[in-house]
Every structure is written in structure tokens, then in C-alpha cells.
Design goal:
By secondary structure, this protein is an alpha+beta fold. It has a single domain, classed as Glucose Permease (Domain IIA), CATH 2.70.70.10. About 15% of the residues lie in helices and about 25% in strands. It contains four helices and twelve strands; from the N terminus they run αβαβββββββββββαα. β7 and β8 form a beta hairpin. The protein is globular. The two termini are about 25 Å apart. It comes from Dyadobacter luteus.
Length: about 230
């Protein structure tokens, strides 16, 4: 039984992972967003302008959302469609859509578990994974689509204090060639993985991965995601 969700709910508060001072707006990347279906998602510059200029009203808002969302934005990305009979389209984290260079912070005390430059089209790009302890329970948080400079000076075991900056949101193409955003994910068990963990799964694997990766809003506590 995974007790992590209840443990996170009981915590009085966490530091902000992103702290722009802007209001949040929940974004929809499922088939229900019909204007999205008309976009050429392979053109990252055009896709980015659609998000920040239209969906986020010229950058007035910080975009959030995506946990357990059945997304259409992966249909044009071969990285997620390798298995045609079992494609990956269920998002396991929360995306925070903000301009490149925006600082990213750890929500609580942490040590660096691992890091990597997952340098494939549609992948995470620069990635940091932290390990945390709460009441004797170990769990992990993943930060994807960071800047390349976020990986400088890192080493396994490096300690961070709650609210300390760990990196910045990266820009395309080095962030996996996505419009700038942070992929934030909670992971109960990393197994033997280092520097990477699935952030999108197939419908058939949905239950397993949602159990392993509980709702990131247990930490983020963003009203628009409740």
C-alpha cells in the first residue's frame, strides 16, 4: 500500500516550486481543446507562441495542468509513439508553463538522487531528480525540461534546503524541443533508474504508474488544480 499521498496531505506546507507572482491558468492539452487540434505541434516556435500568446494571454498567466491527462500533443512525437498498439499519452506529472530562465526551487529539503541530459526529440532534455525524507519515508521529485546550465556543478548527494533554487526552465531545442515549461513529478519508487523516469504512460499502464506517481498537486497546492 502506498502511504505517500496521505503523508503529503498531512504536511503543513511546501515551498513554491515556481514563484512567478502571476495568477495560474489551467491548460488543456487533450482532444477536448479543439483549437489545439489545428496546431502544427511539430513546429515548436509556432506551438510556443500558441501557448504563451493565446492560451496564456500574452504571458499574463502561468500555465499549469496535465496530471492524468490523455493528451493529443504526443501524437506528432515519435518518442511517444514507438509502440503503435500501446502508445504513451497519459501524462504523469504537472506541467508549469513559463518562459525560459524562470527559476525552479525544491519544495522541501532534498539530496540529489541523479541527473541527466535526456537528449532526444520530445524527451525531458536536462533533468534533475531529488530524493526527500518525510517521517522516515523516502520519495523523489523529478524536474524535466530544464536549462543546460542547471546541470552544472551537480553531484549525487548534493544537498538542497527547502526553497533553494535548483535550476531554471530551459528553452527549445535543448529542453527536448518543447515550448518552455517545467515537468514536475512525484515518484514513490525509482527502482534502479537514474536521471530518468517515465513521465508519460500508455492507457494500459495507467493504474500502475498513477499509483507510483501520485498527484503533484499534493505538493504544489495550486487552487486551479484542485
Amino acid at each position: 500500500m502506498n502511504i505517500l499521498p496521505d503523508l503529503l496531505r498531512q504536511q503543513p506546507g511546501f515551498a513554491n516550486v515556481i514563484n512567478t507572482g502571476k495568477p495560474f491558468r489551467k491548460l488543456d492539452f487533450s482532444a477536448a481543446n479543439t483549437p489545439l487540434l489545428k496546431q502544427d505541434l511539430t513546429d515548436t516556435d509556432s506551438f510556443s507562441k500558441y501557448i504563451f500568446d493565446e492560451m496564456l494571454s500574452q504571458g499574463t498567466y502561468t500555465g499549469v495542468g496535465g496530471y492524468n491527462e490523455n493528451r493529443v500533443i504526443y501524437l506528432q512525437r515519435a518518442h511517444f509513439m514507438k509502440e503503435e498498439q500501446n502508445p504513451r499519452n497519459i501524462h504523469l506529472g504537472v506541467d508549469i508553463w513559463e518562459r525560459a530562465g524562470e527559476p525552479v526551487y525544491t519544495p522541501l529539503d532534498a539530496a540529489l538522487h541523479s541527473f541527466a541530459f535526456n537528449n532526444h526529440l520530445g524527451d525531458y532534455g536536462p533533468t534533475i531528480i531529488l530524493t526527500h525524507q518525510l517521517n522516515g519515508i523516502e520519495f523523489f521529485t523529478l524536474y524535466g525540461h530544464l536549462s543546460e546550465s542547471s546541470l552544472l556543478g551537480l553531484y549525487v548527494g548534493k544537498e538542497f534546503r527547502k526553497g533553494e533554487k535548483i535550476g531554471e526552465i530551459g528553452n527549445y531545442p535543448h529542453n527536448g524541443d518543447w515550448p518552455p515549461h517545467l515537468h514536475f513529478q512525484i515518484i514513490a519508487d525509482m527502482g534502479n533508474r537514474e536521471g530518468d523516469f517515465p513521465g508519460v504512460c500508455s492507457i494500459g499502464d495507467r493504474l500502475h504508474f498513477l499509483t507510483t506517481c501520485p498527484d503533484p498537486n499534493l505538493i504544489l497546492r495550486i487552487d486551479e488544480l484542485k
